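User: Second chain of the day. Same drill as before.
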Amino acid sequence: MLYELREYYVLPGRMPNMLARFRDHTTKIFDRLGITNIGYWTEEIGSQNRLTYIIAFRDMADREQKWAAFREDPEWIKVRDASELDGQIVEDVENRLLNPTDFSPLT
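Assistant: Same format as last time:
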């Protein structure tokens, strides 16, 4: 299993829009496309403008295929465009690809 940790740096005042987009649409699109949702977090202490989440794939080839399908998905394009009618939401994105160790409880 390959885990992807993603951090979205959200523009000030736009976090409600970002959370609604993920809650109401993105996680469901991920499910439909076979992207495994692991978890989503905001910060109690730290940045108030960062959404962190982890998704999972079988391997790198699976990740590449599913991200390509997501980027071209008509529902995603419609949701993204609608959520940004009032302006851009995301300032920056960081991601890391994580391989579980042999002692990780997720293996």
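The CA atoms of residues 5 and 96 lie 5 Å apart.

User: Great, on to the next one.
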